[in-house]
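dihydrofolate reductase
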Amino acid sequence: MTMDNVIVMGRKTYESFPNGPLKDRIHIVLTRTPQSSTTMYPNVFFVNTENLREKIDQYKSSKKIFVIGGREIYDLLIDYCEIIHITIVDMEVAGDVVFSYNLEYFVKNYSLLYESDPLISKKDGVKYKYFTFYKK
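Tokens:
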């Protein structure tokens, strides 16, 4: 879905990639200190909130733009998203970050375009479903 397109994320999400940037994607990484962030990858750009729109505008006519997290980035950009792809995973996990939106929020504020049948991960048996919503 994101292959050959643009992915927008926060610095912590970018740093969570164990093998570096994802192949065949342009990475726009939102950080409070882009001037101190360096990269050896030509497809990775560090920006702050002031120049995020300018960087997205460079690509939006020729590529799809995907916001992939984390929570602060979703909170900042969700109102600009026309299509929302969500995976709901039926699993309790330990952590200190909680997604700000639940399925009911999207049902109320967006039109449902797609809902998968319940799926089960072959690797660990976890149940999940895919949803796609379009802004009303």
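The chain has four helices and eight strands.
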